[in-house]
């Protein structure tokens, strides 16, 4: 009888202990919480610092300080003459130009030089990639005083691998070609928010006579003009151009003869 009573008490105690364990599970061991990783600071786009034009030019016209976050530590210098006022024409600017863009490293050593086609130049920097990596636009005065197709020409370049590199387009039928654009009576371009949602696209238009269509048409047909509408976009690590050609009267304009953005391919 005594042994039966002791066994009953042992079973009851064991069941009570098991029930208590499940009702109040042990707390997990305390661990030190690791601090949240700080977000990387956004890269600040470098700024073009203008210099006063000297009595004689070309002279040092602008500098751009670059840091490691821009892919190169050093500075960029523009030696040139100021761009003329709208409508001005300076034929001497393109006769024997000595204007240039130069890249210097952090020690002041010359890393690269890019000659320019005119002594009259303007320089700007834009965040075309959307990550603070600078894309430079040098606009040179190629005005000819007459005609509809000559005017200030913009050339796009960047710093890559410690060198000045002109932006080229990825083409499938004609190899690579440089990205440069003219503003004139029959040519225009502007920057616009990228269709991809990051950075900038370049939108451009050019109106020109359709010589190929004229040759294929009737002999007495009048010469027809067409407009090329282009979008230059940075896609898959390269700059690409998307183009369509339409009659000038087939465009829906936003004003000032500029097509709606939806018209660009």
What does this structure look like?
It contains two helices and 18 strands. The chain has 265 residues and is mainly beta. It folds into two domains: 139 residues, no CATH class; 80 residues, no CATH class. It has a five-stranded antiparallel beta sheet, with no helix packed on it. The N and C termini lie far apart (98 Å). The N terminus is likely disordered.
Topology order in helix (H) and strand (E) letters: HEEEEEEEEEEEEEEHEEEE
Portion of residues in beta strands equals 35-45%
Q: How many H/I helical runs? A: 2
For the report, how would you describe the main beta sheet? 5 strands, antiparallel
Inertia-based shape:
globular
The whole-number mean of residue pLDDT values reads: 81
Q: How many domains?
A: 2
Give the end-to-end Cα distance, rounded to a whole number of Å: 98 Å
Annotation, overall tally of beta strands: 18
Q: Write down the Rg.
A: 33 Å
Portion of residues within helices: 10-25%
- Order of strands, main sheet, comes to 1-2-3-4-5
Poorly predicted parts: 1-24
Secondary-structure class = mainly beta
